[in-house]
Design goal:
about 15% helix, deoxyribonuclease II activity, Deoxyribonuclease-2-alpha, DNase_II, alpha+beta, hydrolase, 6-stranded mixed sheet
Length: about 350
């Protein structure tokens, strides 16, 4: 499951020569990790990686070129997305799906939900890469994206948590380009089934509260609260320091200030492309938006907002890191947006170091 201090080392063998992987993977792609994050700076072909299994969580160089189809974390985590395995199924969403040019969508979310049909084993991957990954056609990292900065985040989860993730995704209306998860696996997942069928929630108003029970790991609490002004979701609140905040396009809210800052009750330092309309905001004591200066450095890899398309924030004080799927633009107030916020000192420390210089 997705927990920050326990490592689940589990290999599932179909036969002596072929292994089934539906969990996040360590740097080398040869062992399960609870979570893994790759930050590929502009112009880099490998990127930096942090993982739950690494001592002190320091950034390391990637084990192989990110375009390689083996020998590194995400090549292994995605091996049964890009190749066939009868016991591994997945749903993939991307506002710029593989091989389909010029699709207009208000969502900017990109990711994959992967599960095993034979064990309680699953992963949620969120990322920033257009056209990636393509289903069942081989590992296809788009080489043109080496020029840009990207984030890839993998979270090992329980299958029982997929419905909570789907409930949040349902509000941001991602473009689903592949789904082969059978309904026999999702019979008890009403939000997932609505997501897979492309149903749009009727909002606003919408209010519901659901507690998800896992027999081994306790309760996960999913909360939606909506009025004509506010929509947000908290995910896994009871047992894991992971929260998902959603701003629905009906709300006309700015997700950084009106959703994230409000929910965390902390100042956030933001790395994101920005327009001339939204600025840093210091008007409310201890609930500011501070903009990180560009260029910045990921250990020894340089990054800049002209080429880096990632959007992330760290809290001040810590220990929270957030990945946001929309840039700090005024026009995102009229579009759905999602923020995935993780309370973990190792992740926070690595990103907070990048945020050393503020405007």
């Amino acid at each position: 499951m997705f927990a920050f201090f326990n490592v689940l080392a589990l290999f599932l063998f179909i036969n002596l020569l072929y292994s089934q992987t539906t969990n996040c993977q360590n740097r080398a792609g040869n062992a399960v990790a609870d979570w893994t994050i790759v930050y590929k700076a502009p112009g880099q072909a490998t990127g930096k990686i942090i993982e739950a299994t690494a001592a002190a969580g320091n950034w390391q160089d990637g084990a192989a070129l990110i375009a390689n189809d083996q020998g590194h974390s995400f090549a292994t985590a995605l091996q049964h997305v890009v190749r066939e395995n009868q016991n591994v199924k997945f749903l993939a969403y991307n506002n710029a799906p593989p091989g389909v040019p010029s699709i207009k969508t208000k969502s900017n979310s990109k990711g994959v939900i992967i599960l095993s049909t034979t064990t309680d084993s699953a992963a949620w991957i969120v990322h920033t890469v257009p056209g990636f990954p393509a289903a069942k056609t081989g590992y296809n990292w788009p080489l043109a994206e080496n020029a840009r900065g990207h984030l890839l985040i993998c979270l090992t989860i329980l299958e029982s948590q997929i419905n909570a993730i789907a409930a949040s995704l349902l509000l941001v209306q991602p473009l689903i380009h592949y789904n082969d998860i059978p309904k026999t696996e999702t019979a008890a997942m009403p939000y997932f089934n609505k997501l897979a069928e492309g149903k749009i929630p009727t909002l606003p108003p919408f209010t519901s509260r659901q507690t998800i029970q896992s027999s081994k790991y306790g309760e996960h609490e999913l909360i939606f609260h909506s009025s004509f002004r506010t929509v947000f979701s908290k995910l896994f609140h009871a047992i894991a320091p992971l929260r998902v905040y959603v701003e629905n396009y009906h709300d006309f809210l700015e997700i950084y200030k009106k959703v994230i800052v409000k929910a965390l009750k902390k100042t956030i330092k933001v790395w994101s492309r920005r327009d001339s309309k939204l600025k840093g905001d210091c008007r409310v004591s201890q609930r500011h938006i501070r903009l990180i200066k560009s260029p910045a450095v990921v250990v020894d890899h340089n990054t800049n907002l002209e080429a880096d398309i990632t959007n992330w924030a760290v809290s001040d004080p810590g220990n929270i890191f957030c990945h946001i799927d929309k840039p700090y633009f005024k026009n995102q107030t009229r579009e759905p947006a999602m923020a995935i916020c993780i309370d973990n000192i190792n992740i926070f420390t690595r990103f907070d170091a990048i945020a050393a210089q503020l405007e």
